[in-house]
Amino acid sequence: MFSFFVNELSMQNKFIIENKDFHHIVNVIKLKIGEKIFCIYNNKKYLCSIETIEKNYIIANIINEVLHNNQQIKINLIVGLIREQKWDYILQKSTELGVDKIIPVEFKRNVVTIDQRKLQNKITRWNEICLSAAKQSKRVSIPKVCEVVKNLDELKNYLGELNLVAYENNKDMSLKEYLKSEFNTISIVIGPEGGFETKEISQLKKLGFNIIGLGQNILRAETACLYFVSTIIYEKT
């Protein structure tokens, strides 16, 4: 069954679906009056029936709320910008896995740079990728892609109860040991394709990030992201 995020609940317990979702329902998947869909509103999922199809919008009637188990651990994924195709992959797959925020960072060894005139359009596009992945994976929340961090000190705004950075050249303790602790929010840092500079690791440690390794093999940035997130979810759920 298809899922759609909605922004408004009418006084008659009905949802109005318009714009891109209206087009998708009417012209792509071609649903009809009476067919069932899920509507997600304020992090809650509702089973709905399509009541009316108008020229520019659809009215969906609530049948009942669908109870679900929320993921308890909130994950902030902090990652150095990488090439567009791989970056899009990270956005999509980390959304499917359950990340709450994705924070792109300009590290010294990033192999890509973004034209500042195009930055806001890119952030809009990145959030649209997350929205699409959230629909596909039937999440009840959409992760936010935040503004690009250019100064590492800005990461203090994204600290969790546990803060870890994956670094192949040093490790304080294994990831498994850190995940034995109790926490509700975790922030994890993955470096860019060119790796971290030593000065950046020192700065991250001063901010409160603990250094861990992700095994003997050197992982690509996109692989490290998914491995890191998957391990957290596996260990804590």
Automatic annotation (TrEMBL):
Q: Does the keyword Transferase apply?
A: yes
Domain of life, per UniProt, equals Bacteria
Which CDD domains is this protein grouped with? RsmE-like (cd18084)
Give GO terms: molecular function aspect only.
rRNA (uridine-N3-)-methyltransferase activity
Q: What is its EC number?
A: 2.1.1.193
GO CC terms, sorted? cytoplasm
Q: Where does the Ribosomal RNA small subunit methyltransferase E methyltransferase domain lie? A: 71-232
Q: Does the keyword rRNA processing apply?
A: yes
Localization recorded for this chain is: Cytoplasm
The GO biological-process annotations, alphabetized, read as:
rRNA base methylation
| Record PANTHER family | 16S RRNA (URACIL(1498)-N(3))-METHYLTRANSFERASE, RIBOSOMAL RNA SMALL SUBUNIT METHYLTRANSFERASE E
Protein name as it appears in the record: Ribosomal RNA small subunit methyltransferase E
Gene this chain is encoded by: rsmE
